Amino acid sequence: MNIKNIEIVVAPREPHYVGDGFRVHNFIPSGYRLDMERMDPFILLDYNSPFYFPPTDKPRGVSVHPHRGFETVTIAYQGKVAHHDSSGNSGVIGVGDVQWMTAASGILHKEYHEEKFSKEGGYFQMAQLWVNLPAKYKMSAPKYQGITNSQINKYQLEDNKGVVEVIAGNYNNVAGAASTFSPVNMLNARLEEGGKADFSFPATYNTALLVVAGEINVNGTQTVAENHFVLFENEGEDFNIEATKKSIVLILSGEPLNEPIAAQGPFVMNTREEIAQAIRDYNLGKFGYLEE
Q1: Where does Fe cation bind (predicted)?
Q2: How far is CA 48 from CA 16, 62, 125, in A?
Q3: Checking CA distances to 116, which of 24, 173, 195, 200 falls within 20 to 30 Å?
Q4: How far apart are CA 97 and CA 84, in angstroms?
Q5: What are the Cα distances from residue 195, in Å, to 53, 96, 216, 274?
């Protein structure tokens, strides 16, 4: 067993609002030592820890905005989100569901709390990731994968102490539900108290986890509290987690693209010239139309 040790444990930053519907702690890229190059291919992680939104007749959210050059992945833990984009895709994700949107060559997008959830109010908990696209796919056609929890393959852990949901990649020969453009593993480990799970990823992959709920022990040596983020070293392959209380853990591991990153707002390309072109294309209406 070639142990993969922890490089750093990162506490959540002060929350900020994205639009008026997402109260998030940003880990990637603003967290200490969690810049885009270090976390490649994961270039953003916003985490909306559990937060109560009171009832409202006007759904909260983020109005129409563009994306180009990457994928957005939204994972719902509590609450419901409605989504629309300029390619004609729309849908609602609820507890346990995943929305995987490939912006690629360019898309307009909006996301709001689902209407019924908005009117009733309730606790809202989500994670959103941006996954970078290889240069050769950045200008491919946009696409959308709406993945319900029932479509996510699951691996049952020993003694019925939990399950690992395989959103993308592979876990113990259980294949992920999402298709990806580069090797990406994205897993939800849902553990009862005392539940244990072992993981193994190539040493060169950038590997991390977020304790979404509960508390865990990593490699029998480090206790990690709720809402904290763990970055692993790029040495060793194997690590394990044990829940010291009922827990949910988001595990990320991906092969770095090792390509130049040029990022500005909602555009992530390889050069500044490509960023300038993205802005021109957006201003010329080439991303399509989406009603507010």
Answers
A1: 65, 67, 109, 111
A2: 9, 14, 5
A3: 24
A4: 16
A5: 32, 19, 9, 47
The answer, yes or no, to whether residue 1 has pLDDT greater than 90, is no
Pairing of strands 222-225, 206-218: antiparallel
Beta strands in 29-85 (DSSP E): 42-53, 61-67, 70-78, 81-85
Q: Where are the alpha helices (H) located in the chain, listed in sequence order?
A: 36-39, 115-120, 272-283
Q: Any binding-site annotation on 67? A: yes
Q: For residue 51, which amino acid is it?
A: F
Would you say 237 is a known binding-site residue?
no
Tell me whether residue 65 is annotated as binding.
yes
Q: Say what the pTM is.
A: 0.97
> Average pLDDT over the chain, rounded to whole?
97
What is d(CA 191, CA 31) in angstroms, rounded to the nearest whole number?
26
Overall CATH class of domain 6-254: mainly beta
User: Other CB atoms closer than 10 Å to residue 78's CB: what's the count?
Assistant: 18
Cβ-contact 97, 149 below 8 angstroms = yes
Q: What is the pLDDT of residues 193-222, one digit of tens each?
A: 999 999 999 999 999 999 999 999 999 999
**Number of neighbours of residue 53 by Cβ within 10 angstroms:** 19
Token couple for 203:
């040493």
* 108 within 8 A of 4, measured Cβ to Cβ: no
Average pLDDT over residues 258-271: 97
For residue 111, say whether it is annotated as part of any ligand binding site: yes
**C-alpha count within 13 angstroms, C-beta hemisphere, residue 106:** 16
* Sequence-distant (≥ 6) Cβ neighbours of residue 249 within 8 angstroms: 188, 189, 191, 209, 210, 211, 212, 214, 216, 241
3-state secondary structure of 135: helix
What is the token pair recorded at 31? 């967290």
Provide the residue ranges of all domains of the chain, joining segments of one domain with +.
6-254
Q: What is the pLDDT of residue 158?
A: 87
